[in-house]
């Protein structure tokens, strides 16, 4: 038997049905497969984070976690800044009404069209290489606009225990710390607007001690690079990496402890960072738990004594739950039979699969759940981040899932 991950806080039940912010899931019965995002949960998450973090810390939303336009508009009204990673995301951010001064653009491989759109709009570019910096100078000169430039630093450390490492050693992201001071001087000499550092060390960390350690190292690195470059640092994006519990045994990140430690670090920061504005950028922590992926059971069959329930969705919508998005060992996400929440008798050895013709399309494996029947509704939790937009929706031609925010 494989355990299921923990169902996030904030969901209730009524008459055996899962309730998402006051609405029982039968409300969306005719609309599966669907992602339902709770706007109230988004508000609660941002409020929780603000009360835990130092007042001076700006909160940015990394929109690649979930770019669904109505969700993005909600988030834009809740956070201080938006981090984007492509020209397409820039368009969505502008359509959501986000002012360019609140947007920063990271990501390796920005083409000249993206650089020029970003420079014209006046957003901050987090430079990923010297080559990109020089292209930005040239485009700025051609347009007669001073580009707003920050440097994404490849730090000498990574975020301990993080699911995806984004720093430390050779990386495709950012510029090695040792080469940063020379580039800062080039940026100043070019007449561009100097915007500081972006230092992102990893993702999906649940251990507060690891996050605290990384933030302390990040502040120390920003100070050292400021000293070595001989300039103050107007802005410092400390990255993020706050994780959410997906699997059995995972526990939530203690953001209270992280906030208290950060407050201490900021209050005793080196003089060169005295006037620096600090931000963190989070994706999944803000939106992941607010999303539930709902599907309907099309068929239940038995094979060699095991039960297979086939849903009307699958990995083409929720790749991460199938274990094929950045995980090494497949483990079960939090999953429930949303119309049998009151059932106490669990039947072991049930596997929920998607409708794709590939054995990797498994949403829950060898799990203990109420006995599944055709027509049941399956809820996959923690589906608000890296779900719909991070899954191969065209694979096998069943089409996209509906996305709903309420
Ligand atoms: C993906 C990404 C994020 C968001 O990561 P989460 O794990 O969703 O919080 C933040 N910053 C950068 C640079 C990223 O690439």
Largest sheet: 8 strands, mixed
Count of discrete structural domains: 2
The number of E-state strands comes to 22
Helix content: 25-40%
Structural class: alpha/beta
The level-1 CATH class of the largest domain:
Alpha Beta
Give me the number of helical elements. 9
The CATH superfamily of the largest domain bears the name Alanine racemase
Q: Give the name of the CATH architecture of the largest domain.
A: Alpha-Beta Barrel
**Small ligands present:** pyridoxal-5'-phosphate
Spatial extent as radius of gyration: 23 Å
What does this structure look like?
With 406 residues, the chain is of the alpha/beta class. It folds into 2 domains: 12-37 and 289-405, Lyase, Ornithine Decarboxylase, Chain A, domain 1; 67-282, TIM Barrel. Helices cover 26% and strands 25% of the residues. It has helices at residues 39-52, 69-78, 87-95, 112-121, 130-143, 180-190, 208-229, 255-267, 284-287; strands at residues 12-14, 17-20, 23-24, 34-37, 58-62, 81-84, 103-105, 124-127, 148-154, 164-165, 175-176, 193-199, 202-203, 235-237, 277-282, 291-303, 306-311, 335-337, 347-353, 362-369, 377-380, 402-405. The strands form 4 sheets. Strands 4, 16, 17, 18, 19, 20, 21 and 22 form an 8-stranded mixed sheet that branches. Strands 5-6-7-8-9-12-14-15 form an 8-stranded parallel beta barrel, surrounded by 5 helices. Strand 7, helix 4 (112-121) and strand 8 form a beta-alpha-beta unit. Helix 6 packs across helix 7 (208-229). The chain is elongated. The site of pyridoxal-5'-phosphate has 15 residues, from strand 15 and helix 9.
């Amino acid at each position: 038997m494989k355990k299921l991950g923990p169902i996030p806080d904030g969901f209730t039940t009524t008459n055996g049905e899962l309730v998402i912010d006051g609405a029982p899931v039968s409300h969306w019965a005719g609309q599966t497969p669907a992602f339902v995002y709770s706007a109230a949960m988004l508000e609660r998450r941002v409020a929780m984070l603000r009360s835990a973090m130092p007042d001076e810390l700006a909160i940015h939303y990394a929109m690649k976690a979930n770019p669904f336009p109505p969700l993005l508009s909600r988030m834009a009204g809740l956070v201080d800044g938006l981090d984007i990673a492509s020209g397409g995301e820039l368009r969505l951010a502008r359509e959501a009404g986000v002012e360019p001064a609140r947007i920063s653009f990271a990501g390796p491989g920005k083409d000249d069209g993206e650089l020029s759109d970003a420079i014209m709009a006046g957003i901050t570019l987090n430079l990923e290489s010297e080559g990109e910096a020089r292209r930005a100078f040239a485009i700025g000169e051609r347009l007669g606009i001073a580009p707003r430039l920050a440097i994404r630093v490849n730090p000498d450390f990574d975020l301990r225990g993080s699911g995806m490492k984004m720093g430390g050693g050779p990386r495709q992201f950012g510029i090695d710390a040792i080469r940063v001071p020379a580039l800062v001087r080039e940026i100043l000499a070019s007449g561009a607007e100097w915007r500081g550092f972006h230092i992102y060390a990893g993702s999906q960390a649940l251990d507060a001690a690891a996050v605290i350690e990384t933030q302390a190292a990040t502040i120390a690195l920003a100070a050292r690079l400021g000293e070595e470059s001989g300039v103050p640092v107007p802005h410092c994006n400390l990255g993020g990496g706050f994780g959410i519990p997906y699997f059995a045994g995972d526990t939530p990140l203690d953001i209270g402890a992280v906030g208290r430690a950060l407050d201490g670090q900021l209050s005793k920061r080196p003089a060169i960072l005295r006037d620096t504005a600090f931000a963190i950028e989070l994706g999944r922590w803000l939106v992941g738990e607010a999303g539930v992926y709902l599907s309907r059971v099309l068929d239940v069959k038995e094979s060699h004594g095991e039960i297979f329930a086939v849903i009307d969705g699958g990995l083409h919508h929720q790749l991460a739950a199938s274990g094929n998005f950045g995980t090494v060992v497949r483990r079960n996400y939090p999953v429930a039979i949303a119309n049998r929440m009151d059932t106490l008798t669990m039947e072991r050895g049930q596997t929920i699969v998607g409708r794709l013709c590939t054995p990797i399309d498994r949403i829950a494996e060898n799990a203990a759940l109420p006995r599944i029947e055709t027509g049941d509704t399956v809820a996959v939790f923690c589906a608000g981040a890296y779900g719909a937009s991070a899954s191969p929706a065209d694979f096998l031609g069943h089409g996209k899932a509906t996305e709903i925010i309420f």
